[in-house]
Write a structure and sequence with these properties.
mainly alpha, rod-shaped
Length: about 60
């Protein structure tokens, strides 16, 4: 295999790797962002639930 063919093969490998890796990386990042958003929302909801429980206790105790 001469140098020209080797460079052509490496170019094809690079293009295929780019076409495959970019969507995979984008999917992983999007999934991580969605996970972080959901985790943040759960934390907010749990905090609000605790505040509501505290207010109910205060109302019960008068």
């Amino acid at each position: 295999m001469d140098l020209h063919n080797l460079l052509a093969l490496l170019s094809v490998v690079q293009i295929v790797a780019t076409l495959v890796l970019i969507p995979i990386i984008k999917f992983v990042l999007d999934t991580k962002i969605q996970y972080e958003k959901e985790r943040f929302m759960i934390e907010i909801i749990l905090k609000e639930v605790e505040e509501i429980k505290q207010k109910i206790k205060e109302l019960e105790n008068g």
